[in-house]
Amino acid sequence: MKAALDNLKKLTALDGVSGEEKPVRDYIVSKIKDYVDDYYVDNLGNLITYKKGTGNGPKVMLDAHMDEVGLLITLINQDGLLKFRTIGGIEARVLAGKRVRIGKDQVPGVIGFKPLHLQSSKEREGTVDKKQLTIDIGAKDKEQAEKMVEIGDLAAFDYEPVEFGDNKLMAKALDNRVGCAALIELLKHKYESDIYGCFTVQEEIGLKGAKTSTFQVEPDIAFVLEGTTCYDVPDTKEYGISTVCGDGPALTIMDRSVIADKDLLKHITETAKLNGIPYQFKKTISGGTNAGRIQAGGTGVKVAIIALPCRYIHSPVSVMDINDFENMIKLAKKVLETLPTSITLYREQGGGKVNV
Amino acid sequence: MECVELLKKLSNMRAVSGRENMAAGEIAELFRQYCDDVSIDAFYNVIGFKKGQGEKPGNVLVTAHYDEIGLIVTGIEDSGFLRFTAVGGVDAKVIGAMEVTVHGKEDLFGVIGVKPPHLIPPEDKNKGIKMEDMRIDIGYDGEKARELVSIGDMVSFNSPARELLNNRMAGKSMDNRSGVAVLIEILKELQKIKHDDNVYIVATVQEELGLIGAICATYNIKADLGIVIDVCHGDMPDAPSDEAFPLDKGAAVAIGPIISRKHARECIKLAKEENISYQIDPEAGDTGTEAAVLAVAREGIPVILLSIPSKYMHTTVEMISVSDVVATGRLAARYIAGRSKE
After folding, report:
1. A144 touches chain B (CB under 8 A)
2. Domain that holds residue A49
3. Least C-beta-crowded within 10 Å: which of A229, A252, A353, B275?
4. Predicted-complex ipTM score
5. Domain check: are A264 and A296 in the same one?
């Protein structure tokens, strides 16, 4: 588990904004290549790995998206400031006053904001307007900025992971490097089923990578490993609390993209109970996951989501509980180890259970 | 120490207004190598004294405040989250998702939580978030949090100073540690040039709460010239062009009712002669800086105000140009030394 946490920290320190996941992918390859039977990168950039099973279980796909939310440079102003659009969901209030790094050379920049002293009373009371924000790399004019940055470059938050409090980890991009780190760990072990570990791209802009990965893998069942929303601070109405940090991995029954497979969910909860691993259900239906894309792949795929509650996701300072992370891996591993005897595929119901 | 390293060190120090004791010793240490005497007063103003070589030396007082804006803990929830309010002019719009240090029994890492976009109902998307609705997450439950944190503990922002293009730097406390860097630049210059007058270099406290440190610091020093070093607004889009000054063009020399017109004019004349870059900052009111205090201290101290243009003031990425810091230090030191030749 120490290795998993170490991988997680290193993964969050890398930049992989949707469309430029290579640094993350390269790191993952270096960590999994000795444990899998085959791996390749598809046209979209997904890393697809194959691990032969020791028995005859269903064909299992494990999905973890590599990409993170970030910024796209759209214009270089005459004064050298960079205009940008967000890639994935980032609130304007999260952007003002933040440190970013841009492009392959990781050019440092900051997102400035009009000082309180110069704001009109209307501006003081209002919100941050995303359109007014720019990245400042210190350039004195457009010409100097153009030497460092090109339109189309991607920018990521420039924040290093910090362990703090009671076994908590703060980092950018916990959504979804937690899934990547968990999947790396899961691939180190042998299972009866054939496992296709898919590290996918472009989830944050609409579940793109999962479409091509599912087409290639044609799985029977799939588990999505994911960092999910968590907002358990005081004054949040109980119905608005999606998950609770520290209460164990979260299982999704339904979100905007998918209704999880009942049999798989039952298998997961029973496995958790049997092994004394804490779990919780995600209590809001907000957000979507790759499960939504995977379920409709081929002739249909049974899907479930094992998620890690992360406070403040889609910001540079998301927070998770390290016990939750370890329990997420423990639970997923047990679920995979006990899979073949407990899962029925609809298309085989006429003929009985899956061969084991 | 090179100016870049000095600015990094200064900006990264923690000295929220009222708790400057956290940095007073470090500032005193920086002064010591250039001064004949360094003392820290009851308010934690740090006072460096550099003796003049003249037979009848006058006294020059140079001030720059070294406190920074921050937060103060106002409550501890049963869940361990901390409530807070602002110390100085903190803009609630720019502190969401910020890393902080809570100065409790020990220094604790924390973050100011923000709701993820997925959970914000559409009707709240365009509403501003109020500081009283924000919490600091230190990762502990209520019991442990109460053990480590007390109401009234100060909180500073984590935003390590970074170098950018063009000799520019951004950090949490360029307002006004870049002014403190100027103080040290002045001391360094005065090592090299002869000056008749005694010079009192004072890093002051609690400016952000209403210029409080300067009021105490001026009580005991009989100065016949005051020089205040602070930041002014750096030019940025959407800022009024006569209230914001471009970076890299040198100190903004204030002209206005409370400023000594004689000294301001002579200072500008000197800048021209010595080819030191400067710009003119017309100030109609009392400037909102310590110049307002010095002008009416004791029987009144003739005062000039030199400001370093800083973009994004009172955010955690306040940006200044190192060249402006150096130019301001040189101009002030030359003016102090040249004055006694009259």
Report:
1. yes
2. 2-68+172-351
3. B275
4. 0.91
5. yes
